[in-house]
Amino acid sequence: MRLSTIMTEMVARVILLPTLVTALALLVKGYTSAGDGFSAGVVAGTVVAIQFIVFGPREPIARFPSPRHAPLLAFGGVLLALAVAFAPLLWGDPVLTQYPRPGEPVVHIGALAFHTALLFDVAVFLLVFGFIISVLGGIGSFERHSQGGES
Amino acid sequence: MPEVLRVLAPLVVALLGTLLVAVLGSLRPRVAAPLAVASAAMALVAALAMPAGASVDLSWAPTWGLRLSFAADGLARLYALLATGIGLAVLVYAAGYMPRHLAHAGHGPERAVRLYSLILLFMTAMLGLVLAQDLVLLIVFWDLTAITSYFLIGYEQEEEESRQAALTALLVTGISAILLILAGVILFVHHGTASIPAILARSEAGPIATASGVLIAVAALAKSAQVPLHFWLPRAMVAPTPVSAYLHSAAMVAAGVFLLGRVHPLIALSPPLRDGLVVVGFASMAVGGGLALAQVVLKRLLAYSTVAQYGYVVVLLGLGEVAGAAFYILAHALVKSALFMAAGAVTEATGQEQLDRLGGLGRALPGLAVGSGLAAAGLAGLPLTAGFFKDEVFFAGAAARGGPIPILAVAGAALTFAYTWRFWAGIFLGARRGTVQPLPLALTAPVLLLGLLVALGGIVPAVGARLAAAAGESMALEATPLALAYHLDRHAPNLMAVTTWALGMVAIVTAARWARVPRAIAAIGERYGPDRSMLVAIDTLTRFSRRLRAFEVQSLQRRIATILVSAAILVGATIVLAPPWPTFTLGDLPASDWPLVLFLVLAALAGLLATRSAGRATLVLALSAVGYSLAAVFTFIGAPDVALVAVLIETMMTVLLLGVLSLVPRDVAEPPSEPEPRDRYRSRAVGFVAAAFAFVVSWSALSWSAPDATMASAHIDLAPAAHADDVVTAILADFRGLDTLGEITVIAIALLGVLTFFVSEKST
Amino acid sequence: MLLLPLAITWFAALALAPLDGRRRAVGAAAVAALAAAYLALVWLAVRVLTDGPVEMIAGGWGPGIGIRLRADALGITFALLSLAVLVAALAFEVLGGVHERSLPELVLFMATGLTGLFLTADIFNFYVFFEVAMISSFILASYGKEVRHLRAALTFTVVNLLGSVVFLSGVTGLYHVTGTLDMDGVAQRIDEAPDGSVLLIAVLIFVAFGLKLGLFPFHSWVAPVYRDAWPAVAAMLSAALANIGSYGLLRFGAGLMPQELGLTATGVILLGSLSILYGGLQAVSARSASEVIAWSSIGQVGYILVALGIGGPIGLSAAILFTMVNALNKLVLFLAIGLRGWLVGATFALAAFSVAGVPPSAGFFGKVAVFRAGEASGHAALLALIVVGGALSLLYMFQVYQREYWARPTKAPPSPLAPRLLVFALAIGIVAIGVWPEPLLALSGRAAAVLSGGG
Question: Which CATH class name applies to B557-711?
């Protein structure tokens, strides 16, 4: 599924970083305006997907963490979310209690609010991003495999 | 010894014996037979030691008020003695019989272990059945006897005939047992207890008593192989002889009449039912006796005789002669098991199992001839055997009732006389036929012993009479004295007995003239009888089932179609049949909503496009067009978060689907070939119905007014407390974070699935 | 406490997810985790049955805002049942050797989904856990990866996705008319809903769960899926996952919409009766053992529906009892047909007797409970139907038993002993329940009391 022309390669290179920054913004600003970990993950995943489509599966592997490790990213994300959700049980609060509790002050740095729900969002981001990369990696390896089978 | 143990000792011993024989026997086949005999002997001792009238009552299932209640009343003691005593005789016999029998068939002796173990399990079940005082408990043991019988009949699993016979027996006894369960439940629900004495005490004449009585009677009659459910018994003769001698003459078949006795007060409440029993009993006597005259295979002849003999008992029970019935059961059990074992021994010695290939064996097998001769005399009701008194109580009961009953009784007894002679004389008298191998003592001794017992019962009838009287008392719940002695006078039973013998002699002497008649009847029965009817019924059922299968859909599309259409029909039926009707209203459409409508129309058009099968890539694009249009709709109704996610998802999905399509070989990616016109119409019809269903449901849902206070409004109010300006995020991460957690787990699982597929692709 | 069983399987599933489940250690760890979760569940059950329901609202919010989780006797009964099935099926597969990398993890995920949905008191959260369980089952259904397994998985997935959509519409509808997702809230406000709306929603939800159960006329997926799926997977689908159907009907029908259930009781009983007859008749001519069991399962769920339609404490407890019994039967039967060798025939026969309701077996008490409900309802036709159903099951179970285990001497090499012993032990368990039924009777009674006693 390689789709490589000079034009597409250039566009793909150019959009990579800005899109990742956008994704990051979507992630951290989720609590104040539209966007959340899920959208951020999909955006980041899409731009990586574009790299795969344009350069074929091999080149991005050299530049990104290998798709082989992407499942770890995804499962790790869910584990993080699970940990955030269940940790309060350890000290007797209900599951998924977010800190600071309602009414308590929250530390802000610009749009970034330090709140455990943010960790939850990060987890979602990791999952979605890892998921997309893993699937792409899977398709890529399948492609390589089937081409190898034909030759 | 505590009373619990004294009552349950026979049961416990038999059960332990079952397990020991099964476990130790499979390790060392040689110990199985001695172990089984020892267990049976101990069970017999325990049964003899059972204290009269003692009982056990333990909690079992308090939620339903079920109790483990057992009582050693007269009926239970009589049957316990039969089950353990004849069981012991049969196991001794089996220890000699089975190794030889298996060797003939080319099997090793280890195959007998299962038989010994099952026989002991059957003994356990029988003991539990007769001791049980709780209806549910009784049913459990009732079916356990049917299960063990099933496995014993199907002992020669490789033989088609065995399998057929086992299945027939299972179906007849198993299905009739369902009726017993039903009767039990009816009584249980109406009387609020499963305790048999309590139920009997509370029962009053009426539809409940009649209905449950009839159901119980059907189950009992099927078990006792009464017409027209008798046909399983002759077939069951494919089982090894010890099984026939024990289960299918003395014990399991006797369980049916036992049950009739156990609930006798209930049955007595319904006079038509009692008359029905008399009719069935005489019918069984006629059919069983007649077919026994026609039968040449030894064991089958005896099986038909069993059918007829339990007919006597059923008549007695119908007449209310419970003590007499008990004595009859006792005498018949001794007689018939001896005859079965004799038949098996004869076959073992000569290799023949048909009457017309045997004869003149009296000299060669004297012990067997004497033992079975005594038993046969008992069966025919000759004086100085216990059998004389079994006939006497029968004649006495018949004479007391009057009408045509005494005549029928004499006719039936004469038939018995005739076929018994045919059986015994055919084997042991006349010209010698066939060669004879010597038999071990284990095959002869039990027959001789039982024969002597039959004779002893004729000389000292008081012992049996006492047992039977006690049994009768626990059936009728009042004293039923039974005095048996020889009277040399002209009272009715004596006259009837003499008439019977005379008629029997005439029949034997003139046998050659009428021998064809029973054979013709047997041939007719084989062609049109209940046995045949059941086969035909099963066959018809199977064919009907096949035809039904042809209606079942086979392709995935059709499967979905049936579900959609059924759902639509259900919804339609609900709307039409069940008030109140759902509301259907038309809202107004402000100008500001026009763009919304535009996108909805777009989505609908794209959806329609997707139904035209113009290739898979087109399909993907059409579907994503639907998605984008709907995402646009969300932006118009003020849900930017939802719209954002929707757009992103659509993009991702389209990319992935196209990517996958590019991997698929071209011929698979091609549009499917145009379906047959008939299929096309059908598909369109299904599509229309499904769409109508979705449309009606959505329209109705949109017409419903929503309540003012909703969870969502509470969420909006509380979002600041959750330190969030964006409500959607607060809902996702906080208020309903658990849902989010679940959904991301779903994605993780999907990833796991993807990995599974790719990994397995690589490895293959 | 409430969440411990859930947490154990959830964490374990994710922790094991990156690992290759074909390795013995991974399989053993998964079995251990599932067993630990089961113990936690038993502990929870003891508390619930002695002290009453245990509740928690996620996030520390008030009722109606956060998600309410609750363990009551009904939920805990179903959780105990389904998890027991999964422990047994997973242990069976691990003992016999796992063929694919994700099986143990997927079973853990399925356990998570099932536990979650039985322990939630929120209708949307129910749907979420439902999906967790479903998606695991979709992937599990393809286990084996031969063409027939894949075909079974495709059928199963497509049809059940359809069911999920219908169910989600029902949940949305409930939210629309009551404004809340909390089950207590829904139950309180449902009387104020617009005319006719709840009945329509009830039908949607009935369709969804009927499909899940494989009830006539939504049964078209059952036979091909159970016939073609891997035996242990078929066991999990039919004995654990299908419990969602009966639980859903009980919880949503008898629990949330009792009026609608009462209104449609005749229809429910009718569909149940049709299921009994249709499944039984089809099973008579089915060829392979798995096909017979598949058709039989369509008939068996009919009893659950009949009991549900009769309702009341007796009917509902009969429905619950029968669900439990049916799940155990299906578990043993499906596991047994994957095996060959000594003890397997006996195992199959014991479970077959249970299906036919022949004592001493768990199935006998299931049959008696349904009879009791039928007798309490006073319809003689219903009693006759149950008798006919029982007769059919006796016929088809033992026709196939004799064909599979008597007629053909086994030529295939016997399976490993460990799984055979496991399944035989399970079959003995069925008999043991028949000998001492009290725990099951008490549990089903308590569970039914949650619904009929205003729980």
Answer: mainly alpha
